[in-house]
Amino acid sequence: MSQTQIAAAPGADTAKLRVLLVSLFHPELVRGGAQQMCYEIYEELKQDPAVDVTLLASVDNTYPALFKAGACITGFDNHDDQFLFLMQDYDYWWHKTSATRSIDAFAEFLRTVRPDVVHFHHFLTFGIDLLSLTRAVLPDARIVFTFHEFMAICAADGHMVRRTDKSLCTNASSVRCHQCFPERSPEQFLMRRMWMQRHLGHVDAFTCPSRFMLAFYERWGLPAGKLHHVTNGQRRYGMPQDPPEGAKTRFGFFGQMVDNKGIHILLRAVRLLRAQGFTGFTVEINGENLRYASEAIRSEIETFLADEAELPLEDQIVFHNGGYHIDTLPARMARVDWCIVPSTWWEIFGLVISEAWMFGKPVIGSDRGGPGERIRHEVDGLQFALGDVRALADTIRRAATEEGLWERLRANLPAPPSRHDMTQQYLELYRAQPGEPRA
Amino acid sequence: MASGNSVAAAATTRLGFDEDAYLATYPDVLVSIETREFEAAQDHYERHGRREGRVTAEAYIQALGLLPKGVTAADGAVMDLDTIVVSEGGTVLVVGWTDDREAALHSVSIFASGEHAWHTTSFSRVRRGDVEGALQAAPGHLFGYWVVAQLAPGLDCTRPWSVRTRLANGRFAQKDLRPRTVSDADMRGTILGYFAAADLYGNRQVESVAAFETGIGAALVDLNRRVVNHVTAGAWASYYGPAGGACIGSIIVCLFGKPEFLFVQCALFSAAPRAREYEYIFVSNSPELTETLVKEARICGQIYGLRIVLVCLPDNAGFGAANNAAARFARSNRLLITNPDVFPRDNGWAQRHADIVDGAPAAQTKLFGAPLYYDDGSLMHHGMYFEVDAGISVRPDGIATRPMYRTEHYGKGAPVWSRQFICPRPVPAITGAFMSADRDWYETLGGFTEDYLFGHYEDADLSLKSLSRGVPVWVQDLPLWHMEGKGSVRRAAHEGGILVNRWLFSRQWGDFIAAELNGPNPSCALLALPSDTPILQPAA
């Protein structure tokens, strides 16, 4: 873009609400919940005649071919209203870029698009200080920020899982964070907190997809009046499937094969049940990215799957189907009766829960975080104590053997939150006046 | 800005031509003069003596009266030479050892390429475990010696130099070694690094003072002055953010080793209303960070709308000199010397500072500090006072004592509610982590004394310069965070610098402190709290 391109985009309707969605990654390039949700909103807003929506999604060096020489922001695949922010010189501790050209380009992009609303889905890859830059460039714009985990609070990838003992953390403090990062002093964590809060201070409205997150951010210091719960919604890409006859003994895992998704907990539960002589069930693993798991967990999973594959087919319980896309999800879902969400962290929302409900599958999930909040134990699903292998094993055995349980839970499954409802809630926030409480 | 202290030059003598000593040592010259072969002794020296190295002869040096009386003998002394380092400005560091168990080391002579000679008794001793092992000597004797002396710039270092050590019994030995050449700045680091790592018997603080008193301290201060003058003369300034306009204060931050504090401070200070009425001058003692700082300053100017001045120095000038250099770029009449690891505790800092400057009596704001708080919320600083310790050093040959001066912080570690520490009041000194100074007064005091090496004691020195002119420093109600010790990196040379600074500070202010400023309740009348100042009690 040229330095002089500061007028409104040609053809822009100034009567419309101009919304800029700033997305961590583009879902067509990198899969993930934050970018998927942002894209859902983008697609919904595209259908709203009263809104002009623009998407700015980041991309990192996993796609070097998209880094055009000398560019900091480019278009994306011939979409008129989708752009890529080419991440450069990013500091993962302070969460900022040191590339002056990136700063210039972002500021110029804001002046060009002139949005009434800038809705950030995460700050990772952009930089938390771009919130301050946005306020400097667009003093009157409404800034909305959606938290997809706790990265502002927690330097441990935003998971709030203590690195000391893998327990869930409920309260970040300088000393507690120093315990997780002994190489960093307590003072650094106070500075980090002040730095984050300084920039988040420009935000008019924060949203979290789960209610339990609100308390975390309020306790951390964000004003309660700015914190809102907006559940993640999706378009419907599946319908409840007809159940098979007989016992419901087919379990499925859908998600990334990384530590905090708890797949190792599930495999240990299988091992326990097999040792107990209970083998009348199957587990389908649908996931990838095992390379991002820790070495110990990766080794455990790989060894289990290799040993399993060595067994005669009739003795195998666990089947690894590899990764999946939305297009293949109906077929994968058709092969299971239950979905298991054994996450060992807070699991902020659990999109897979919504997907399971979409296809009429009751969910067995951890009793904390998003699953704990969303799954109604004994009503529409089953909970087990987070990280407890025996509890999960017992739950699987019960689910596979208790007559009528599946049918009872399935009958109470809620409709998955819709994209339309979610977007309407965001539009309320977009249109609210500064300081105005949400309707 | 002028240096405030004066330190005596090191006791090193240049060995040149002296007619009486020359003729006394060389009777052949007298004969030559009588036969009119030469007009005078100096004629002989110029035509032959210098080239023949006659002024380096032990007999000649003895004739100059620089050696102990008695015989001289070129055998019987055992010594070795580890290194000769010469700086571009002519400072030399000689490190070696000698076995002087029978007769003590008397003096050291340095002969540069056979043409120039110096003689010094300014040396210090260190323990040498390797020599103890080689000589199979029991611990207790200091075999090592080191010399720091100011010679002359531009000496020929392409040929070996000679170093002669001599003992009190007249025996001497000589070794040749080609010197290593370094910049003055590197020489400063080399000497301080060497001293920081040196092995000593007894109390390190006490023994370091003894070492510096030999003249080494003065030589180091001279060297540092030269480095600082060179570095600050090369200051390069660039400007970011909005230009022009008046400002009510100039926040000056000296950066060293950690660039991130520039953007963190800009972010946190800029949050306050009226923050943009101040300018932000960052002065860097880390030339390797220049490109990074330029980028960050540019970004900060854009994001936070602050007027930023970035002053980059070509080397480390030290805390005091860097702040003085930065002050020259200030546009306002109020200088806020601020450490990189100091941050506002709330967004009222800019207004509160302005209120203090505008509302408090002028004498209370010429130079004032602020309550500083640790990250854990407790008080870190509410002014400083001085303590005098009897430094005791137990050496193998006896016990030495020396008064040792140290600074302490009022209220360190006190709970945040302990308001007895935080009402405005005069104090003996304030930390350089935050100082707000009337610019005229700052300049009247000569700014920070630039003799101090790298950092430490300049703040107390500036405070005492003010107090000695009748204006005590105050602590005003302007609460700030201080991530003490996190704002810069510390290297081995800095440890040596602290020792030099302590010695220097004690020389300059020891008598004043002992007389009027000893302890947390000093007798100095200027520090008495005005009778109408309210004493606040701790919150219930």
Regions of chain A with pLDDT < 50 over 5+ consecutive residues? 1-7
Report the strand count of chain B: 25
Instruction: Report how far apart the termini of chain A are.
Output: 39 Å
CATH class of the largest domain in chain A: Alpha Beta
Structural class call of chain A reads: alpha/beta
- What is the H/E string of chain A? EHEEEEEHEHEHHEHEEHEHEHEHEHEHHH
Main beta-sheet annotation of chain A: 8 strands, mixed
Class by helix and strand content of chain B?
alpha+beta
The percent range for helix content of chain B is: 25-40%
State the strand order across the main sheet of chain B: 11-14-13-12-15-23-17-24-22
Strand tally of chain A: 16
Give the overall shape of chain B, derived from the CA principal axes. Answer: elongated
- Ends of chain B: how far apart? 48 Å
Work out the strand percent of chain B. 25-35%
What CATH calls the topology of the largest domain in chain B is Spore Coat Polysaccharide Biosynthesis Protein SpsA, Chain A
**CATH C-level class of the largest domain in chain B:** Alpha Beta
